[in-house]
Sequence to fold (326 residues):
Amino acid sequence: MKKIAVLTSGGDAPGMNAAIRAAVRYGINEGMEVFGIERGYAGLIENVFLPMNMRTVSDIVQRGGTLLRTARSAEFLTDEGQELAVKFLHKRGIDGVIVIGGDGSFRGAEALSKRGIPTVGIPGTIDNDLAYTDFTLGFDTACNTVLDAINKLRDTMSSHDRICIIEVMGRGCGDIALHAGLGGGAEIVLVPEVPMTYLEILDRLNEDRSKGKFSSIIVVAEGVCKAEELQRKIKDSLGAAVRATVLGHLQRGGSPSARDRYLGTCWGVQAVKLLKEGKGNRVVGIKDNRFIDMEIDKAMKMKKEFDYELYDLANVVSNSAISYIH
Ligand code: F6P
Fold:
């Protein structure tokens, strides 16, 4: 394997730059020529290849976002788009590709592998919604960003005896809400995996109020409902002062945490090693604190298991009398 290329695709995630840097530098160190592809699969089918060297990845390990930029490409999903991508890769003599992204990006990596281009995926998404790996790149940083917001909002909400609703990212996966809610001591955590009725939420708030606790933090994953909708309902039912904050894309930016830099660096190196060994059609991950790799299709067929025990525990430690799981 002499020439490899790396791209980032889908939603950006803090730690992607650490992975790019590690793949480029380790690849060059192993005697390879390394290219960066701009704007993910969109750049690939537009033939945008940047020759990388040790210096092109200087000063990025501490930066959020992605040096290579990213995109979601509808054209790459078509046969014509994929044929074009393979044509450009062959033309440049690229022997292997590293794709950093989430599940959609991995489907693209699988398509390239099936068309004869050995491709390795690195899990890069703040959502932590990939079943085969315990953690994805950017999740830790996003949780810390949410924690910072919870801390700040708690200061002002408790000073005013207000209820605060904080909407975080996570359409189908409540991991950001759960982990940040647990760490931030949220009184209520709403995730798509655990249905909670509006009456249950009210019961919980009323119970807090009966104990003389008038300020509560509710962390809600975006896949459950809109923060403002809940704000209006609670305000109408309790007549309480309620404020809503949507953290949105704030959660996707920022300097990566130590953990995300570590994961990005190790996965960047691991991906190059796999390509060097002639292994494509694989994704890298971490399971029980050990770095793993597996076939893309197998990884994509696994169903993400929500940590119900942790969810229950979050309720117990936030002093809830109610268990929603057992
Ligand atoms: O997949 C990552 C993610 O940040 C989701 O949590 C969120 O729902 C979505 O991307 C937002 O996408 P966009 O960048 O297109 O607004």
Q: What stands out?
A: The pocket of 6-O-phosphono-beta-D-fructofuranose is lined by residues 11, 102, 125-127, 169-171, 222, 252 (CB under 6 Å).
